[in-house]
Write a structure and sequence with these properties.
275 residues, alpha+beta, 3-methyladenine DNA Glycosylase II, Chain A, domain 3, Alpha-Beta Plaits, two-stranded antiparallel sheet
């Protein structure tokens, strides 16, 4: 008797499993959402960094938005013009040139700026800034703990010999993740053809800057007067580059009394990438 009950139970369970499988198969076919094959093609040419620079959570979401919502096809900064052209080819569209941007850390202080106290807490910029504004007497400068280094998916940022974050322009894709994570808001994306940068973010008056940082901007305005194309202005005791007309002449760097202006030389390897 017990054997018959077990057998009947197995038969019932087996029958139910078959029926459920058939129903699931039918539902899968009935309610299947057809994927546009173009999405997969586009996804295959995207770099897969999932950096979010395009404004979407990842490459898959961006590819889907291109196909479904007809969004711009040149939003992938890591991929640049090359990826945009491939997507354009898939969709049969024309692509606008994407201006290459690179990140610049607007600070050169680091260990050349005086400490207000010795910080022994967790070595994270956001934590140090949130509770203590950092150990530096300058409350505008780089904290040097490398939150931006950690978030960069391309290894384009490092902490230099002065304990300040610095960008390797040959690796930087302009994704902007470092800009978002910096608690001091001193990282800026600029067109790659501009090579002159005022590496200071301080709004303190010149007298105080002189006391706490040897390479800080004192707001003297010499660079503003010296710039032949009027691409620098003063605001809140700080000289600021407009990045509108700079011709990389380097005159402002030569005139700056505190050497807070950096004018990098464009090398052959950079020219290949930038052009």
């Amino acid at each position: 008797m017990s054997e018959n009950i077990v057998l009947q139970s197995l038969v019932v369970m087996g029958s139910c499993s078959v029926i459920i499988a058939i129903l699931l198969g039918f539902a899968a076919k009935k309610f299947k959402v057809e994927e546009d094959p173009k999405k997969e093609y586009i996804l295959s040419v995207l770099p897969g960094a999932n950096c979010g620079a395009c404004g979407y959570a990842g490459c898959e979401q961006y590819a889907e938005a291109i196909v479904k919502d007809n969004v711009e096809i040149n939003l992938c900064r890591p991929g640049g013009d090359e990826v945009s052209k491939k997507i354009a080819s898939i969709l049969g569209k024309e692509v606008k040139d994407l201006q290459r941007l690179v990140a610049v850390v607007l600070c050169a202080g680091g260990n050349r700026a005086k400490n207000e106290f010795v910080y022994t807490g967790i070595k994270k910029c956001d934590i140090s800034n949130k509770f203590f504004e950092g150990e530096k007497a300058c409350k505008y400068g780089c904290l040097g703990f490398g939150d931006c280094v950690e978030v960069c998916p391309f290894g384009a940022i490092f902490i230099n010999e002065y304990n300040v974050a610095e960008v390797d322009v040959l690796k930087c894709t302009g994704c902007g993740l470092c800009v978002k994570v910096c608690p001091k808001k001193l990282i800026r994306l600029v067109p790659c053809n501009y090579k002159v940068h005022i590496l200071c973010n301080s709004r303190d008056k010149g007298v105080k800057v002189k006391q706490i940082c040897s390479v800080g901007c004192i707001g003297c305005g010499i660079c503003v007067k010296a710039c032949p194309v009027s691409d620098i202005y003063l605001e809140n005791n700080l000289a600021i580059m407009k990045y509108n007309k700079c011709n990389n002449c380097g005159i402002c760097k030569a005139k700056c009394p505190t050497k807070s202006i950096d004018a990098k030389i464009i090398i052959k390897e950079e020219l290949k990438i930038f052009n």
